[in-house]
Amino acid sequence: MSESCHHCQCGGPETPAEAAPPRDRPAAAEAGLRESLFKIEQMDCPTEERLLRKALESLRGVRTLSFDLIQRTLKVGHVLDDPQPIIAAIAGLNMSPVLLDASAPPEAAPADAAPRLPWARMGLAGVCAVGAEVLAYASGTDTSLPVAALALAAILLGGLGTLRKGWLALKHFTLNINLLMTVAVIGAALIGQWPEAAMVIWLFGVAEMIEALSLTRARNAIRSLTALAPERGLVRQADGAWRELPARLISVGAEVRVRPGERIVLDGVVLNGASSVDQAPITGESMPVDKQPGDPLYAGTVNQQGVLEYRVTAGAGHTMLDRIAHTIQEAQGKRAPTQRFIDRFARIYTPAVFAVAIVVALAGPLALGMAWLDSVYRALVLLVIACPCALVISTPVTIVSGLASAARRGILIKGGLYLEQGRHLRRLALDKTGTLTHGKPVLTDVVPLGAAPMASAQALQLAASLDALSPHPVAHAIVSAHPGELLPVSGFASLPGRGVTGHIAGKAYGLGSLRLARDLGAVDAGLEATMEALERQGKTTVILCEEGAAVAVLAVADTARASSRAAVADLRRLGVEPVILSGDNAATVRAVAAELGIDDARGNLLPEDKLAAVEALAKQAPVGMVGDGVNDAPALARAHIGFAMGAAGTDTAIETADVALMQDDLRKLPEFIRLSRRTSGVLWQNIVFALAIKLVFFGLTFTGDATLWMAVFADAGASLLVVFNGLRLLR
User: Fold this and answer.
1) What is the pTM of this model?
2) What is the domain extent for residue 523?
3) For FRET with 634, which of 381, 473, 498, 607 sits at 20 to 30 Å CA-CA?
């Protein structure tokens, strides 16, 4: 494995953003554009990215570059017939590209083992560096042959790779930390500071190795998602026998058996058996979910009790778990505003500091009468301190940690932009059906009528018996609400737009709308008052008539989710105002809003009306839109952040939304906003800390109290601390 890059100061041409902008949709792809995907083991930080950008952006035929530093992959969009020129350009940077299949689905890769780092070699280099310092202190000279020999041994053992990278950066006219370290080490040696040169290169090498372990942890946070799925499954053969096969050999349509306590190997649909399944890896649900024939299963989830047999619906590399991991991998490459700002800042800042260091080296002797060696030494110290490594390296690690932490909670975020900018949301537009409510009607009321009203249970039994043969959703809600036995119905008739009629135990019954009741002569003032009261609550009513008289009113409604009220209250506590945008009738929308405590509720909206409403809200403050990812697509696209509800069931939601909530629980929204605020807080902690360290050591440099090895120690230490701070988000 290559040495991990410890510091970096590169960036793309993006400009910083104050708040998440409405998302730009990609333009049509260039005709004939091809994509080549390369695995580059030597590329794991923006230092290598910048070298690659410089080498490839000017290459004829190359159109786009997409870097994934965590997974060490580079996707190149080009119009070349053969990617060989790209491979040659990458190889010219002392990197070894491996061409992958860009169209292949992401594979479930095992987590990285601890990187095989040259600890023994670095340990020996450290002994030599410390020995040079001790010997120089004891002898009183930094330039004696034994001191220089020990220092040179430390440089060759612990810093040869850094020197090579520095030379490569110089050849390509790229200012990066490797070039700065090379200049510092060679400069220190030339002015006779051999122990300093040895200590600088050794501390830098140790910092790189520790950081390699930190980045491996961030990388494994993503890979561990796909590693949840087992590698083998028990598959039914043509002769009916069961045989264990590798997941990659199990085809779509195959029948798989999963026993209690086992993880489900691939996505599928239950054929036989009943059990409960722990779906926390996919949806973040804290409680197991009951599964019966026809219910979906997801790879990586855990079967709890019974034996399940299911039909595979997605092969290896295409499961929900694979898609989640792949989405996070793509998301980490989309720079958040803070990261874009820091990258741009570093591109200007580093050359400027290099120029200041040259001025310090020349101005000291020429203007202030300082000794040349002292002046050059201060310039070298200034170079090492000034490198914006801690600023740049902390942002990708922090963002990836936040993305992985969100995925574990059932929140799939499609870019660092949305993770960081979620904290700016001040309005949240919510679709009603399927978002705030369950999306299907249930029976809410049975109101008996008349001077001698029948029992509610009897009225429900009669209504369910009549509706058992009707396919209408309201009928299904009534039948589902009756737990007991149904009565036989004779002379059944379905009357479109009105309801159903039939005979039960020799009596004529009708069940349906007010129009049917009028036809049967069953309407009176009491009936109309009861219906009006229920409909003001947003409920749909049907009337049960017996022998031409209304005997009961049944009400059906799409009820609010149990989690919706808690989510709305939590959003308000965070300073986010919820708004309902629904295509349902205004009375129903107002009733749901009143139940949940939402003040702004708008009904009877077409998709274009929702779009106009979101546009108006976006002019006032950053706004999010929550919907199903299909019907609400225009509004989702216009919002600063689009959220898809229950995305575990729809591929479209994952593909179109910016944030997908993997279960139907709106409480994930305030959880996302809190994570966004925490991520931003960690980023700014890192920025303030890194800049404070710079300022302190700048002052020490100009007073002559800072040494080269102190500068490297402070710089490397700051980088490691901000990386570890970013990794806190994984907890």
Assistant:
1) 0.60
2) 442-557
3) 473
